[in-house]
Amino acid sequence: MLMKVLLTQFILLFTVFFANAQVNLNELEAYKDVEVKVEENFSSSTALVMEVKDYDKLLVGAKVAAFLEMNGFTIVSSESADAVEKYYLFRYNYEFITDKKRCGGTIIKLMNGQVFDPTRQEIVATFSFEQKRNKICTDDIAKVLAYKLKRGS
Questions:
Q1: Between 20 and 30 A from 101 (CA), which of 25, 40, 48, 49?
Q2: Quick one: angle between helices 138-150 and 60-70, nearest 10?
Q3: How many separate domains does the chain show?
């Protein structure tokens, strides 16, 4: 468990350190392929609890969390969620495929998820991505997803 936490922290630091915040997101190929729908009652100032996966080969959860924080979201652990007044649950699923030419050998094929408000028992945002050209890396998907969530799609 300690190794998993340390690895996640390392990936977060690595992603944040090397992320190019000056990139024009509209120019990223992922921009048009990441679909985000945000309900009126969604608030980007509400803390997020990231769903923890037992197996996350591409470290999608850590990468998305890092880019969400870079876009001003507050990420809290499930253990400390009770200490905040209100929070949303960030849930996601994905499938990946092998691509030996790009992105370290694996890329996301499909991804979908939701932001769930446990207080109101309702979904406040949904998102999806489908790889159409086999060249969009996980970091770009995570970067665009965080950006679109922050801006309400």
A1: 25
A2: 40
A3: 1
Kindly report the CATH number assigned to the domain that includes residue 77: 3.30.160
Nearest to 95 by CA among 146, 141, 147, 126: 141
57 alpha carbon, distance to own chain's centre: 14
Full pLDDT tens readout for the chain, 153 residues: 555 555 555 555 555 544 444 456 655 778 889 999 999 999 999 999 999 888 888 899 999 999 999 999 999 999 998 899 999 999 999 999 888 787 888 889 999 999 999 999 999 999 999 998 768 899 999 999 999 999 986
Structure tokens at 143: 């970067």
- Residue 91 CB: number of other CB atoms within 10 A? 16
Look up the domain containing 90 and give its range: 2-20+28-150
CA dihedral over 113, 115, 120, 122, signed as positive or negative: negative
